[in-house]
Design goal:
This protein is α/β, with parallel strands linked by helices and about 300 residues long. The protein has one domain (about 1-275): Nitrilase/N-carbamoyl-D-aminoacid amidohydrolase (4-Layer Sandwich), CATH 3.60.110. It is built from seven helices and twelve strands. The strands form two sheets. Strands 5-4-3-2-1-12 form a six-stranded mixed β-sheet, covered by helices on one side. Strands 6-7-8-9-10-11 form a six-stranded mixed β-sheet, with helices on one face. Helix 1 packs parallel to helix 2 (about 60-80). It is globular.
Length: about 300
């Protein structure tokens, strides 16, 4: 099975009108490049509370609804799937979700993923948890016979989520991030660590995110589309990883762009864990057949 995806980045900000113009333009570019699905970053439509603006109280929900309608209409017009980062309003005084809408080619919302692991301490009063309510569900959908899943940013710290998607036979994981819009002073401080000669980036997110995505792809034998805001300073550029952990291509940091990749699930890649992964996932933590031997049981002898 083949699936052509467009991994997109642009400088997400508080200006919803500006964000939606980027989104619509990149949808057109993706379709013209033959993409079946276009993947946008975390909170691409609305911007990120606590980063791009101070509080979700500043959000204009009528404008969000109108802008979302434009994107749904464009998806229908272009006959293209869209994974859209946005803020999903809840009832009463409940904080909204940090969400990814899965939009089908008929311009309908097929499902919605809500970030399960929002950043913040157990107090629930800082970082993401000061602004957003966590979600509680996985989302799996199918395009052209290929099973797909979605995650958001800090979710990557929890390998259990990737294992669960593997249990659900997901072949392509769309992981949306917002590791950017870092002010110049903070960016300079991050670059003064002296670690650059030993790493491929200067900022902590730039150092750890790409290799973590490569490890998850290889450990679970799945494709990963990882995108990010390009708002300066962006910690790392959007990229795609194939099932053996190899990055196939990436965009340029701090610059808007669309990365088009064709996935062929019939292409075989190196998979070191293929023979025993299912057993490990089932709680059997060894390969081959165990032996019954007193010298094996006695772990204090030479």
């Amino acid at each position: 099975m083949k699936l052509t995806i467009a991994t997109c980045q642009f400088p997400v900000d508080r200006d919803i009108g500006r964000n939606v113009r980027y989104i619509l333009r990149q949808m057109v570019s993706a379709k013209q490049s033959g993409a079946h699905l276009v993947h946008f970053s975390e909170l691409a439509l609305t911007g990120y509370a606590g980063v791009d603006f101070d509080s979700v109280d500043e959000l204009d929900w009528d404008q969000i609804r109108e802008a979302t309608g434009q994107i749904l209409a464009e998806a229908r017009r272009r006959r293209i799937w869209v994974i859209l980062g946005s803020t999903h309003r809840l009832s009463g005084r409940n904080k909204p979700h940090n969400s990814l809408y899965v939009i089908g080619p008929k311009g309908q919302i097929v499902d919605r993923y809500d970030k399960m692991f929002c950043t913040g301490s157990r107090t629930g009063k800082d970082a993401d948890l000061a602004h957003y309510s966590p979600g509680d569900h996985f989302v799996v959908f199918q395009i052209r016979g290929i099973r797909c899943g979605v995650l958001i940013c800090h979710d990557f710290r929890y390998g259990e989520l990737y294992r669960e998607y593997k249990q659900r036979k997901v072949q392509v994981l769309f992981h949306s991030y917002h590791n950017g819009h870092i002010d110049q002073r903070s960016w300079k401080d991050a670059n003064d660590t002296g670690l650059r000669p030993l790493n491929h980036a200067s900022n902590i997110h730039g150092i750890i995110v790409p290799p973590t995505m490569q490890a998850y792809a290889a450990n679970n034998y799945m494709w990963i589309s990882a995108n990010n805001t390009s708002a300066r300073e962006s910690c790392w550029p959007s990229f795609v990883v194939r099932p053996d952990g190899v990055i196939t291509d990436r965009l340029q940091r701090n610059r808007a762009g669309v990365l088009v990749t064709t996935i062929d699930t019939k292409t075989a890649y190196y998979d070191a864990a293929e023979a025993w992964r299912d057993r490990a996932m089932g709680g059997i933590y060894h390969s081959g057949r165990l032996v019954r031997d007193p010298r094996s049981r006695n772990r204090r002898s030479t």
